[in-house]
Amino acid sequence: MGKIRRKLTKSFSYAIDGIKYTIKSQPNMRIHLGVGTIAIAAGIAFRIASYEWLALVIVIFFVFILEILNTAIETLVDLYTEDYHHLAKVAKDTAAGAVMVAAIMSVCVGLIIFLPKIVNWFF
């Protein structure tokens, strides 16, 4: 049991190191964290419904996941070659594009959830 626990602890430690690396090295990840925090605070303030929380949490974490994967892809490409290569650019650009699509989707979800509440708050 002790050996399994040590392996599991190491595994979690490596995962946390990867998340920390992404937060420290990627300005966009810090932006995503800030916007996600604001969205959660808005959810609390507006007392959104459980199904709205579900949508909000899914899109926030989806963006985080893709930003972490984007960082991994960029790092692997940089490890492979520092020279310009068209396919390296394609790999980096498509990974970044996936993050952007997810971020746009999360903004759409946020607008669907919060815009009516904001409008009702003012009128």
Automatic annotation (TrEMBL):
Write down any Gene Ontology CC term. Answer: plasma membrane
Question: Signal sequence: where?
Answer: none
Which example biological process does GO assign this protein? phospholipid biosynthetic process
Which residues take part in binding a divalent metal cation?
A: 74
Q: Does the keyword Cell membrane belong to this entry?
A: yes
Subcellular localization is given as: Cell membrane
> Has UniProt tagged this entry with the keyword Cytoplasm?
no
Check the record and name the Pfam families matching this protein. Answer: DAGK_prokar
**Cofactor note (record):** Mn(2+), Zn(2+), Cd(2+) and Co(2+) support activity to lesser extents.
Q: Which CDD domains match?
A: UDPK_IM_like
Q: Entry's InterPro entries?
A: DAGK, DAGK_sf, UDPK
Q: Which residues participate directly in catalysis?
A: 67
Q: Which residues does the record give as substrate binding sites? A: 67
Q: Which UniProt keywords apply?
A: ATP-binding, Cell membrane, Kinase, Lipid biosynthesis, Lipid metabolism, Magnesium, Membrane, Metal-binding, Nucleotide-binding, Phospholipid biosynthesis, Phospholipid metabolism, Transferase, Transmembrane, Transmembrane helix
Question: Its membrane topology, per UniProt?
Answer: Multi-pass membrane protein
Name one molecular function that GO assigns to this entry. ATP binding
Tell me which residues bind ATP.
Answer: 14, 74, 92-93
Q: Where are the transmembrane segments?
A: 29-48, 54-73, 94-115
Co-factor(s): Mg(2+)
The UniProt similarity line reads: Belongs to the bacterial diacylglycerol kinase family.
Q: What is the protein's given name?
A: Diacylglycerol kinase
Upper classification of the source organism reads: Bacteria, Bacillati, Bacillota, Clostridia, Eubacteriales
